[in-house]
UniProtKB/TrEMBL annotation:
Gene3D superfamilies in the cross-refs: NAD(P)-binding Rossmann-like Domain (3.40.50.720)
Domain D-isomer specific 2-hydroxyacid dehydrogenase NAD-binding residues, every copy: 109-282
Any single Gene Ontology cellular-component annotation: cytosol
Family that this chain belongs to: Belongs to the D-isomer specific 2-hydroxyacid dehydrogenase family.
Alphabetic keyword roster: NAD, Oxidoreductase
Claim: 4Fe-4S is one of the keywords in the record: no
Annotated protein name in UniProt: D-glycerate dehydrogenase
Molecular function terms from GO: glyoxylate reductase (NADPH) activity; hydroxypyruvate reductase [NAD(P)H] activity; NAD binding
Domain of life: Bacteria
Residues of the D-isomer specific 2-hydroxyacid dehydrogenase catalytic domain: 7-313
C-alpha cells in the first residue's frame, strides 16, 4: 500500500507526476484553500499533508496521535504553521529554502524598477487610452544608480537583492540584521536603515516577532522620496499606516508582492498610482516552483524511508 499524501493546492505537473509514482496522491485543485476543519481532518486521513502559505496550520489543526507524521511546506516561510504545536505532537515539518532565493530577489528588483520608473502607471494610462502624446515631462521616474538600498533582514534573499542592486545599479547597501552578514554596512536599528536609505526592501520572516515592524514612524523616516519594497510578508508592515503614508505623500512609493490578509488587497492601495502591486508572485517561476515541489518530495521520500529529513524544521 502506497502512503497517502494530500497536496493542499495544485502543484506543478512534474512534481505531481513524481509523487504519484510512489504515493497515493490526493490534491485540492479548487480555487479556494482548505479550511482549518478540512486540514484537521486531513491530518487523520493522510500519512503526509503538504501545505502552502494559504493554509493556516495552527494548534487547532495539528494534534497528538494524528495519522500524518510529516507536514511538507511548499515554501520557505512557515509563519502559517504552528511549529510549537507540531513539536508537541511529534510531527515533522519541512520547508523549501534556497531554491526560491533568486526568483524572490528578482521580484524585489522588478518591483523596485517598476515603482522607480512608474511602468505600471504608464501601462495603466496607455491601456485606458489616456496617453495623449510624448512630452519631456511625461511620467518622469527616478533612477536607482548610486542610491542607497536598505535591507531589513539580510538572510539569503536579502543578500541576493543586495548583490544584484550593488552589481547592476551601483547601489550602496545598508542593512539591519541580528548578525553581521556580507554585502553591505550593518546598522544598529531598523530606524537607522529607514532614515539612511532611499529604497528599503523587506526580507524578514513573518510571524509574531515581525508583526507591524514597519509602522508610521519608520515610514516617515523613509520619507516623501522613499520607496518601500515588500516581498516578505504583508504583516511585517502596518498596512493602514502604509496606506496613509502613501496617500499623504509621507512615503514616495511602494512595490508590494504581499499583503496582510491575502488575497484581500485594500481598495485604498489598489487605487493609488504610486504603488506597484503583485499577487504574491515572488517564487512564481516555472523552474523554481518545480524545484520547490521536488524538495518537498525529497523530504517525504526520506521520511517514509526512515532517513533523515532534508530541510526539517521540526
Ligand atoms: C511561496 C513564499 O510561493 O516560500 C515562501 O515563503 O512566500 C512564496 O514564495 C509560497 O509561500 C508558497 O507556499
Amino acid at each position: 500500500m502506497k502512503p497517502k499524501v494530500l497536496l493542499s493546492r495544485k502543484w506543478p505537473a512534474p512534481c505531481e507526476e513524481r509523487l504519484s509514482r510512489d504515493y497515493d496522491v490526493t490534491l485540492n485543485d479548487a480555487d479556494v484553500a482548505l479550511s482549518a476543519a478540512e486540514l484537521r481532518a486531513a491530518m487523520d486521513s493522510y500519512d503526509a499533508v503538504c501545505v502552502t502559505v494559504t493554509d493556516t496550520v495552527g494548534a487547532d489543526v495539528i494534534h497528538k496521535n494524528q495519522r500524518a507524521r510529516i507536514i511538507g511546506n511548499f515554501g520557505v516561510g512557515v509563519n502559517h504553521i504552528d511549529l510549537d504545536a507540531a513539536k508537541a505532537a511529534g510531527v515533522a515539518v519541512s520547508n523549501t529554502p534556497d531554491v526560491l532565493t533568486e526568483a524572490t530577489a528578482d521580484m524585489a528588483i522588478t518591483l523596485m524598477l517598476s515603482a522607480a520608473r512608474r511602468s505600471s502607471e504608464g501601462e495603466r494610462q496607455l491601456r485606458r487610452g489616456a496617453w495623449e502624446s510624448w512630452t519631456p515631462t511625461h511620467l518622469l521616474g527616478r533612477g536607482l544608480r548610486g542610491k542607497t538600498l536598505g535591507i531589513i533582514g539580510m538572510g539569503r534573499i536579502g543578500q541576493e537583492v543586495a548583490r544584484i542592486a550593488q552589481t547592476a545599479f551601483s547601489m550602496k547597501i545598508v542593512y539591519y540584521n541580528r548578525s553581521e552578514k556580507p554585502g553591505g554596512e550593518r546598522l544598529g536599528t531598523v530606524a537607522e536603515v529607514m532614515e539612511r536609505a532611499d529604497v528599503v526592501s523587506l526580507h524578514v520572516p513573518g510571524g509574531a516577532g515581525t508583526d507591524g515592524l514597519i509602522g508610521a514612524e519608520e515610514l516617515a523616516l523613509l520619507g516623501p522620496e522613499g520607496m518601500l519594497i515588500n516581498t516578505a510578508r504583508g504583516t511585517v508592515v502596518d498596512e493602514p499606516a502604509l496606506i496613509a503614508a502613501l496617500q499623504e505623500g509621507k512615503l514616495g512609493s511602494a512595490g508590494l508582492d504581499v499583503f496582510a490578509q491575502e488575497p484581500h488587497v485594500p481598495e485604498e492601495l489598489r487605487v493609488l498610482e504610486n504603488v506597484v502591486l503583485a499577487p504574491h508572485m515572488g517564487s512564481a517561476v516555472v523552474e523554481t516552483r518545480v524545484a520547490m515541489g521536488m524538495m518537498v518530495a525529497d523530504a517525504l521520500d526520506a521520511h517514509f524511508a526512515g532517513r533523515e529529513i532534508p530541510n526539517r524544521l521540526v
